[in-house]
Amino acid sequence: GEGLVLRDGKRYRCHCRTEAIIRYLLPxxxxxxxxxxxxxGLMEAVTDWLDKPTxxxxxxxxxxxxxxxxxxxxxxxxxxxxxxxxxxxxxxxxQALRDSYGKEGITEEMILHDYIEAPLLILDDLGAGSLSDxxxxxxxxxxxxxxxxxxxxxxxxxxxxAAISERMDERVGSRLATYKLISFxxxxxxxx
Length: 192
What we know:
The protein is an alpha/beta fold. It has helices at about 15-25, 40-50, 65-80, 90-100, 110-115, 135-150, 160-165, 170-175; strands at about 5, 10-15, 55-60, 85-90, 120-125, 150-155, 180-185. The strands form two sheets. A five-stranded parallel sheet has the order 4-5-6-3-7, sandwiched between helices. Strands 1-2 form a two-stranded antiparallel ribbon. α4 runs antiparallel to α5 (about 110-115) and α6 runs parallel beside α8 (about 170-175). The longest helix is centred in the C-terminal third of the chain and has 16 residues, at about 135-150. The protein is globular, with a radius of gyration of 17 Å. The mean pLDDT is about 90.
């Protein structure tokens, strides 16, 4: 099977299988990220949301405030519970789509499939790209199709919803406005 064990009436992956999946899904810097790295209140808010997810969770704040670390902790938590999650930087999505053009046997829809069908998608650092029409259209397509399929998405961004609406696309901002917001404040921990 999938290396699942039963504990307290809930399914969890065995530790070795969990770690192998996490190492595959996450950048090396975030292999050890855990929800417990954050305060009890934030950890409970996230686990409550994961138990009863809505359209999405929007992690917004300045550079280096912990958004990606929390998103990676969400991946670890989900994988340990035997649930599937995909973690991708928005730039990876856009690059994969660009790389598919002109390649025989690979279509844009094939690339989008994993992003659209994943039970939980973490889309990291939205708005950090060139903001081309292609990026705007692709982002809207993913968010829209996931919402229509009742699949939850976690999005991280340095921008708030108003900035995304103004700089990227008001339709993307409108969808993100339905997400539960967690706002990160403070100094850039990387430079502190």
